[in-house]
Design goal:
Layout (H helix, E strand, L loop, with lengths): L16 H4 L7 H15 L11 H17 L4 H15 L5 H13 L7 H13 L3 H6 L18 H11 L4 H9 L11 H19 L3
Helix pairs in contact: 3-4, 5-6, 9-10
Length: 211
């Protein structure tokens, strides 16, 4: 059995779980681009070739947990994916190397990683993407996870914005907020609207080069 990871800090302490993904950077859209860029290049690679690192694998598993949570799926499944993501994030051993050396069976020696998730990890390492994540985002776009990156937008509010107002991305939330739409959202007032607007500006700042 692999012992408890000895470096790093659990991502659950970084706020809003993986939805914020501040420690890694990268939105679901960027993650999707990562899938695309790795997809063809990883297939058929030799064992000595570079593969997805632990942070990338953890990010994908975390996004799976985030979408499951957004869709109100089974709480145990959500917790399992999130725990696996947090465990892999702080591991010293590279999961890609474990996949090469022992496949899914080797991964199952890691505490908290069972048969189902180990198979997911093997697919992610070998192809750069997750077919399960693709399946989950057929009816709910991955960009809804970006709503949770915004201060003042919790799970229930994000779900409400998507369900009742059709807000499914950070860009759409920005337009909605600037038009005063948040005032019409139950449970949100002017202070929260101002907080959301300021948070969106902070999130966008790195992309525009603002300090």
């Amino acid at each position: 059995m692999y012992g408890r990871p000895s470096v790093g800090a659990p991502l659950s302490k970084q706020g809003n779980n993986f939805a914020k993904r501040g420690a890694h950077g990268g939105t679901p859209v960027q993650v999707a681009l990562t899938f695309a860029s790795y997809g063809d290049s990883l297939i058929g690679m030799s064992d000595s070739s570079p593969k997805l690192d632990n942070a990338a694998v953890a990010r994908i598993l975390g996004d799976i947990a985030g979408i499951l949570e957004f869709k109100d799926e089974n709480a145990f499944k959500i917790r399992s994916y999130r725990t696996a993501a947090e465990t892999i994030e702080v591991m010293q051993d590279q999961v890609a190397e474990l996949v090469v050396s022992g496949g899914a069976a080797e991964l199952q020696q890691i505490q908290g990683i069972g048969k189902g998730i180990s198979a997911q990890i093997v697919e992610i390492v070998e192809t750069g993407k997750s077919s399960y994540f693709t399946e989950l985002t057929r009816d709910v776009p991955a960009t809804v996870l970006d709503l949770r990156r915004v201060s003042g937008i919790g799970l229930k509010t994000a779900q409400l914005l998507y369900r009742d107002f059709g807000i499914k991305s950070l860009a759409e939330l920005k337009v909605f907020t600037e038009a005063g739409g948040l005032i019409s959202v139950p449970g949100l007032g002017e202070k929260t609207a101002a907080r959301v607007k300021a948070s969106i500006a902070r999130i966008e700042a790195p992309a525009t080069g603002d300090q």
